[in-house]
UniProtKB/TrEMBL annotation:
GO terms for cellular component: plasma membrane. This is Multidrug-efflux transporter. GO terms for molecular function: antiporter activity; xenobiotic transmembrane transporter activity. The keyword Cytoplasm does not apply. It comes from Undibacterium parvum. The chain crosses the membrane at residues 12-32, 52-73, 94-117, 129-148, 160-183, 189-211, 241-264, 276-295, 316-336, 348-367, 388-411, 423-447.
Length: 466
């Protein structure tokens, strides 16, 4: 059994590590935005923090919708139906173009939120401009993620890594030129980040299209041999899987983003510190997320082959592997929290508050890694509605209500324990810890039941693989 576990863990890691580097590079763009504007001014950092709060909600929701392609294609690969994949991908690109355009429109409309946050006029203007500019990269991002899911599902994850690293390099260089105004270019500050990221998304899409066209590994399933009109039944079937995933992602990221927006009322220092802690947590989160993407692929392929026992085994190994990493990452964040904060900003007050918030970030590593790996394993079964409901309840039934009660000081006076004053950012992070823990426990329980039910159904049908 130990040998089987090691073999499966190695197989998951073989698929996940290029995805991890690609994910780190993608998140590294956001890290570069925050770190580079943080060394320009606290005002520009606050504008990027607020703009990124809205951008991240829409971005991650779109990512969730497009991840449906991963599960769909993985099942076809497992079943050996490679001839179906080009049609699926042509339709997924139509879906991506529509989703990307809708996301662009919604992102621009969402800046109305800033009108209700009592922001300084300069911060309001810079945050709004950041969102308007960066939204132009959304259609490219949606189509890039469609190709991303396709290439991961056929076990080709290295292109994602290479293209994301090139995108990160482009982002850092253009940030340096436009944020600070080097080489005679205008000093755009926060807006410079938006220009770099938006243009970078289009270049990454172009690079992925070029790679799939020229690499021989895609020849068998290459989708762009001819044009094809939208086929709504195919698109609807993908949306039935993808929209609940998008809502699931929305529930989580909007809860974190809502915390950033609510903390804004306490001033520039808390909102900047909150963004730093959240930004680094997102960076660390890429490891269990990458393992989760590998889980979706391998579980989906196993189920496509008709091997429900192997799918359950892969799921359990993946969740255990993610949890083991979370123990290490929690210790790292707790020990080096002051050094991490100093790498983001030179402002002493922001450093101190960010370091204190990272203690909460360290605590929720365990539940965060568990819930994302369990959710991704469930996704490999093409089951998405129950995880969606669990996430909605966990974040909107627990995380945000508890966070608002503690952070804004809304607890009634008769409560036996009530802080003397609002806990601000710390109170919201306590709520997030509760929400993530609830999600982790419920998702693991559901994965157990789902995988056993699938085995029971296969056994009763005489379809248990040998």
């Amino acid at each position: 059994m130990k040998t089987k576990i090691r073999t499966e863990a190695a197989a998951l890691w073989q698929l996940a590590w290029p995805v991890l580097i690609g994910q780190l590079a993608t998140v590294g763009m956001s890290v570069a935005d925050v770190a580079m504007t943080g060394h320009l001014s606290a005002e520009d950092l606050a504008a990027v923090a607020l703009g990124a709060s809205l951008w991240s909600i829409v971005l991650v929701t779109v990512m969730g919708v497009m991840i449906s392609i991963n599960a769909v294609v993985a099942h076809e690969v497992g079943a050996g139906k490679f001839e179906r994949i080009p049609h699926i991908m042509r339709q997924s690109m139509w879906m991506a173009a529509g989703v990307g355009l809708i996301a662009c429109l919604l992102l621009n409309l969402s800046t109305i939120v800033f009108d209700y946050l009592q922001l300084a006029p300069s911060v309001h203007a810079k945050a709004s401009q950041f969102v308007h500019v960066i939204s132009l990269g959304m259609p490219a991002f949606a189509m890039y993620r469609a190709l991303y899911s396709y290439t991961a599902s056929i076990n080709q994850t290295k292109p994602v890594m290479v293209i994301a690293l090139l995108g990160l390099g482009f982002n850092i260089i253009v940030n340096w030129l436009l944020i600070y105004g080097h080489w005679g270019l205008p000093q755009l500050g926060a807006t410079g980040c938006a220009v770099a990221t938006g243009v970078g998304m289009w270049l990454m899409l172009g690079a992925m299209l070029w790679w799939t066209h020229h690499s021989p590994v895609y020849h068998q399933t290459f989708p762009f041999t001819h044009k094809e009109a939208p086929h709504w039944p195919e698109i609807r079937s993908m949306l039935r899987i993808g929209l609940p995933i998008g809502v699931t992602y929305f529930a989580e990221v909007s809860a974190f983003a809502a915390v950033g927006l609510l903390v804004a009322r306490f001033g520039i220092v808390p909102v900047s510190a909150n963004q730093i802690a959240l930004n680094f947590s997102s960076l660390v989160f890429m490891v269990p997320l990458s393992l989760g993407i590998a889980l979706t692929t391998r579980v989906g392929q196993s189920l496509g082959e008709g091997d429900a026992v192997r799918a359950r085994f892969i799921s359990l190994v993946g969740v255990g592997l993610s949890l083991g990493f979370a123990v290490l990452s929690a210790a790292f964040i707790a020990i080096f929290r002051h050094e991490i904060a100093a790498a983001y900003t030179s402002d002493a007050a922001v450093q101190a508050m960010a370091a204190s918030l990272m203690l909460f970030a360290a605590i929720f590593q365990l539940s965060d890694a568990t819930q994302v790996s369990a959710s991704c394993a469930i996704r490999g079964y093409k089951v998405t509605r129950t995880p969606m409901l669990i996430h909605l309840m966990a974040f909107y039934g627990f995380a945000l209500p508890i966070g608002c009660a503690l952070g804004l000081g809304l607890l009634p006076e008769w409560m036996p324990w009530r802080p003397a004053q609002p806990m601000a950012a710390a109170g919201f992070w306590i709520g997030l810890v509760f929400g993530l823990t609830v999600a982790a426990l419920l998702l693991v329980a559901f994965l157990q039941r789902l995988s056993l039910r699938k085995i029971s159904f296969a056994a009763s049908s005489g379809k248990i693989a040998g």
